[in-house]
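Our example pasted here:


***
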Amino acid sequence: MDPTEKKKKYPWFVLVIADILLSGIILCTFSYFHHVRMLWGLGKYADDDQMQLNFEKNGENIGHVTHEWVFDRTVAPSCTESGYTRYICKCGAEKIEDRTPPTGHQNTELRGAYEATYEEKGYTGDLYCNDCGELITKGSEIPSKQHENLTLINKRETTCTEPGYSGDWYCLDCKEIVGYGSETPLAEHQYVKKQTVSPTCEEEGYTLYECSVCKTEKKDDYLPVIDHIVGSDGKCTMCGIVIVDMGDFGASFPEMFIEGSDRLTFTNDSEIREYAANNGITLKDHEDGKFIALYRSHDIFISILEVNTDLYYEGTNKTYYVQYYVYDIYVRNIENLFTSYTTSSRKDTEKLISDAEKLTGDEVIAAMNGDYMGNKNHCLVCNRNGKDIRMPESIESDACILYYDGTMETVTPQEYDREAIKAKHPYQIWNFGPALIDGNGEAIEKYSNASFDHNVVDQRHPRASMGYYEPGHYNFIVVDGRSDDSQGVRMVQLARLHEEFGSVAAYNMDGGDSAQSFFQDSEIRVDEDRGDAQRKLYDIICIGEVSSS
């Protein structure tokens, strides 16, 4: 460029327009990253205030999913409009709740009315609503009093589809219309209830009304959106959105599962030990134990260790011979651990297993009794496979909660918080107890006789219990008792077994003759004296394959 040339100057209005365009580009870019990009990541569920997750895409947080609702204002109902309470989120979304129906025109006034005279016509006046100012009914002329022989003609009744007409005054003497009428507004619809639509996790519920005259429909009596209902796959059973990302637990211990479709079963101790060693599998072992079963598939790994040993109890300064079984359990998905139950009368365990296999479409590999859920006086809180059967505000004994994300915890009655538990999406809740391991992974040594009977805690009995290591890794410890082969254990001894095998949380289920466990078609622990007439149960805990079809 020639330095002697002058720089080109643009008119001032061109610069102003350029500034405006640049500001618009910056604003749109910010909006894109703050809202649009978030909505693309979340889809239509970005406005769903029920979901309790932080959503990530490709490892990057792209926005909040749980709206943080703040009260904005309450709008009172008017003559023609519904009232409501409005809440807004920092992202700009809004929701409406607490709808109230219109009040109708209640405060009315007749305006512009005046009497007819012999010289001038009169006027009936216009009816107005003092609250909203709306003209409700327009008036009509009143003929002057000099016309005495009058009749009303052209009158038409109003309906909800056509306006009416007040009619014209016709003088029979003059043969003329001496006072013209006016149209009257449409009549109100004659609504009758037609249908009630229940709310879902996406849309409000409402009652649909239909006019009996013209068939016009309207929605009213709205009900707020309800919470998602979590299914056994972690998705909402209504809208299908993933509420709890259960993940693939197999990523934590891939060596435990088979990548193909094979299903392997071993029942010989030496074969089991050899197979585990050749495949890099570490088994939960004991110096007085022998392995009686191993099962391995794409989704499940189970080993069962039978231990026959002497247990010393310092309370009596004696040693007792005990037989117990340790199920070491790995599941790839939480749906491979489920419950089969009845809410009516007890069932044979074989029938509960059969019911479970019909439900899942595949095989139950192992099972153990549950918590005696039919005892509603003790088992106050109960959830099975994500379904709340009983969820009171308070409980009287320890509860155990298994969540959809695979974690398990035990809570005391003082720690029980119904809303906090529901917010974390429980998959199973048992309420028999007591809890056996404290927050430090150590055996609980003392138990409250206010919640647990002295005989249940301090005497030797057959026992059934469930332990937890990490999401996807659990155990059953089932103790035989009341026989020459095994004299059972006290509660503190059961807790020490869980500590010995490394449980970080553990929970006592129903015991005595209810302490029953199975592997495939074999009984592992049942009461020998009962033979085929084993105690019937309300529920069992199953480890099983789940059909994908």
Notes: Helices lie at 12-42, 269-278, 349-360, 418-423, 454-458, 491-500. Residues 210 and 217 are 4 Å apart (CA to CA). The chain has four domains: 47-100, 108-184, 192-223, 303-544. Residues 108-184 form one domain.
